[in-house]
Design a protein that fits this description.
The chain is mostly helical and 135 residues long. The protein has 2 domains: 87 residues; 37 residues, no CATH class. The protein has 5 helices and no strands. The longest helix is centred in the middle third of the chain and has 43 residues. The radius of gyration is 25 Å and the shape is elongated. It holds the Pfam family Iron_permease.
Length: 135
């Protein structure tokens, strides 16, 4: 069941992000808008679009979240493997995605302090300087 849902969620999320899908959704809204006078802008006419969009939105939230969770987990596994393979990397960073937001922010701030321009007697990196100059 898990494989079927994963495949369905992936395919649906992929199609949902295509321009043709947006055009189809826009066409549905335009057809609905044009038919308004035919139905005297009745409550039923309004209920059709409201119900349809609510159902689609509700279901898409779960499908997109599933795809994002899967992508994030795969990316994290790849990053962990890179950390393991680089001799100078600190293996303590493997698994920090399971920490709280406050703990992660503290780690990020500490890393920035370590690598701040001029910290530890190191000059700022010229590539970073050039990149910052562009903006």
């Amino acid at each position: 069941m898990d494989r079927i849902f994963t495949r369905f969620a992936g395919v649906t999320a992929a199609y949902a992000g295509k321009p043709a899908t947006f055009i189809l959704a826009m066409a549905i809204v335009l057809v609905w808008g044009v038919t308004g006078p035919m139905f005297d802008y009745s409550q039923t006419w309004q209920l059709v679009i409201n119900t349809g969009t609510t159902i689609v939105t509700f279901l898409m939230v779960f499908l997109v979240q599933n795809s994002q969770n899967r992508d994030a987990a795969a990316m994290q596994a790849k990053l962990d493997e890179l950390i393991r393979s680089v001799e100078a990397a600190r293996n303590e960073f493997i698994g920090i995605e399971h920490l709280t937001d406050i703990e992660i922010e503290a780690i990020r701030a500490r890393l920035e302090e370590e690598e701040a321009p001029g910290a530890n007697g190191k000059p700022p990196h010229r590539t970073v300087e050039r990149l910052l100059d562009r903006y």
